[in-house]
């Protein structure tokens, strides 16, 4: 197993639990229903890809560049996709101007897609 991949996944998992609890208990009644929905989407996608990153750690002995690319793509996807949604969801209470986030969220989604494609190709090529 790859210690670096597991450590990053555990950090994403830990922050996912904290952010999920904050959304459920700290944001309810303070942001709109749509913003709360965006928060939940961010947490969900963070967890889906945290588990995907943990799965990648089982391939670590193969020293496969595609697996490493998937790891980087999933990590960037969490940061960009979920991170931008967290900021967008809290703009009502933070007062931050988040207009620059418009293209960031889909870019994060693109990294998720690239990570899955890379994992697919790595799996086909694995002997």
UniProtKB/TrEMBL annotation:
InterPro entries: DUF423 (IPR006696)
GO cellular component entries: plasma membrane
Membrane topology, as annotated: Multi-pass membrane protein
Pfam short name (any one): DUF423
Superkingdom of this protein's organism: Bacteria
Keyword annotations from UniProtKB, A to Z: Membrane, Transmembrane, Transmembrane helix
TM stretches of this protein: 42-59, 66-88, 100-124
Subcellular location: Membrane
Annotated family: Belongs to the UPF0382 family.
Name the record gives this protein: Uncharacterized membrane protein YgdD (TMEM256/DUF423 family)
